[in-house]
Predict the structure of DUF927 domain-containing protein.
Amino acid sequence: MEKMVLKPADTNEIRLGQFILRDKDLYMIKDSKDGKEEVYLANASKIKSVTRNIETGVITLEIEYYSFDRWETLKISKGKLLPSELSFLLDKGMDIAGYKAKHVFQFLDFHEKSFKPTYVHQKLGWMRFQDEILFRLHEAIQNNKRFSIYEGQYSIQPKGSEKEWKKIIQAEVVGHASLEAIVAASFAAPITAWLNIEQKGDIDTLLWNCVGNSSGGKTTAAMLAVSAFGNPHISTDGLVQSFNGTGNALQAILAGNFGVPIAFDEVSISTFGKQTLTSFIYKLAQNRDKARLNKESKLISTDSWCTVVFFTGEVSILAQTKNNVGLKVRLFEFKNIQWTKDAAHSERIKLGVLNNYGHAGGIFVEHLTQCGIDEIETKWSEFKSVMFEKMPETNYRARISNKFASILTGAYYANEALDLGLSIDRIADFLVKQELDSMTDRELAPKFYKLFRDYIIQFSKHFKINQEHTNETQEIWGKIETKGNKTYCYMFPHIYDKLAKDMGFADPNVLLDGLKANGNLKHDNQKKQIKKAIFTKEETKLREKVLPNKPYSPRGDYSVCIVYDGDILADYHKGSLDNFNPNSTNTRTIKPKNELEAMIEKNKSKGLFDE
């Protein structure tokens, strides 16, 4: 070791215990026959900062050290300062070989204790910390004080100014219902998450899909939506992410997010299969990954989240998933909306939000914390009632009203906090229209299913029934079979289309999607129809009436098969006999027309129901 006489303290040096850090060198103070002396130990290593992660509690040290010819910095957890990690630190260029390691580690331990840790976070949105609620953005906000710095993957450090961002909203958004609605949905993210965390209502992640061609401005709308909270650029660190990834990778983007909106652009490029995409969308809406066990059969902690997720794409997500109602009340699709007026309008919004972002979200959340969760819940409940009254009567009216109410609540508090001038009435009308547009897919299939059962009973003579003899003069539309306590109603596709349309259902194919999703359709694999031999070879004349100019096939013809529980014909006749009273003076009471009878009478003029 190099020895030298102990020097007086220098204002630029650090003295801790038996160590002195001076310039690029670290010395130890040792006893000698002349008193005390400085002994050169190694190139300098010192603590630059100490941070504590508020989510994990992990202490991270930022070490600055001199390596060969320059200063380097390294961030490591405190657990890395162990002999077992020596090779890692040597590879990074720290001068700790051999006997030096013990002493350098000891000096760093002394130096670390002179720092007050700075809090950091890597996730976004609400969390509880030290029994208080806080919101994590580029800084964590608790009791209107900022005390933790964001160190995660997203670029959410504010850029530009809140004033300029607000000018964009007031000049380019206000008065344009679709853009007002998507901005309100963005501000619904912190509200949705806070209500969920406090278990204030049946509310979970809101999924919003912008579907349409490439010139509709849907990507611009998504960028606008997330810009209140961070960088809206489509990139690995922006709040608009590519949908080109595995389910696990996309899920990781949301993990730990409780209140900051995220957008996924171009769902059309997804390589997910139907089952995988269905499971993924369910998982997003339900706020958590599925439970798993490790090798020891112990439950592994799972990722969770609750926020608003926007999607954009040229095709419907629902069309690519297994159609079922559960998805359709979780994912709201806005199809063929002209989000921006023209290319110039879109460009102004894009340019504006790419240069001014990340300010409004923090101001908005501070206002929410001042209002408190109880006041927010009350306002949300008021908007639930408003939306419930406005919404069409469906089985899912209450659930959808819950979700749409969070959007109106977002608009209400955004107006209070930022004076944006969003029209709550205009937004509500836009959301109701979306629900009316989606009803065909979600609600009309069950309605058709019930009506069509009555129709089959009323006009059963137009169907071959099991093995019963059929009159050759009769017009046959299909066949009814009863097997295993089920009734299978087969009909030819063109007959089905005509019946459905004449009954007032505009899109028969959408009805099939609904029937298939609800398990009411018998079909071949990957199809909505099934091959069925309705006619025998001897029934050529009957077949030609309904399928003219089509050669006979022993394998049968493609047909639509709707399935009902029980023997619907036998059950109907049994019910009629059970209600018959032979002693009644009037056994033929006149009943009000039901929906089916009214529909039949209306369509008699078309010849479909003629005797």
Notes: The longest strand covers residues 35-43.
